[in-house]
Amino acid sequence: MPLSLEYTKISLDVFKKINYNFGIAHEYINYGLGYKADKKFDLAIQSFNKAKFICEKLNDTKNIAHTLYELLETYN
What are the tens digits of pLDDT across the range 20-45? Predict the structure, then answer.
């Protein structure tokens, strides 16, 4: 899992440098999935909420739904 999170960090840094919000949101979703798999639920929830906030600004309904689903799964 640490390698997966490292690649997510690299991707997030690239997307931030080019200011690509869709990619940034996607990487926060990846962070959330990684943290959830690693049972770091507080970090997963934080990551999914960051992704949801960005998706709402982009009006990206598909990924809003995805993050809400992942939040639900994390809370369960």
Answer: 999 999 999 999 999 999 999 999 99
Q: How many domains does the chain have?
A: 1
- How far is Cα 4 from Cα 60, in angstroms, rounded to an integer? 25
The parent domain of residue 37 ranges over: 2-75
Radius of gyration of the chain (CA): 12
Q: Which of 46, 34, 25 is nearest to 6 (CA)?
A: 34
What's the rounded Cα separation, in Å, for the pair 41 and 59? Answer: 26
Q: Which of 67, 5, 1 is nearest to 38 (CA)?
A: 1
Cα separation of 25 and 55, whole Å?
A: 7
pTM of structure: 0.92
* CA–CA separation, 54 and 2 (whole Å): 25
Both tokens assigned to 2:
């640490």
